[in-house]
Amino acid sequence: MADLKITLIKSAAHRLPKQRAIVKSLGLGRVSSSVVKPNNEATRGAIFHIAHLVSVEEVK
Predict the structure, then answer these.
(1) Residue 48 belongs to a domain with what CATH number?
(2) What is the pTM assigned to this prediction?
């Protein structure tokens, strides 16, 4: 499986505490920050909860 590049496109401020915790646990800090994570069920589950805040693209 390829990795996923996750980019924070909207701020996590004024969001539910669970959503803020997920953003922080993924290693995203400021808007436009990006991380590369493995494409597994745990990562996809986290992305599902904050899909409206992030942009996801597949990286080989």
Answers:
(1) 3.30.1390.20
(2) 0.93
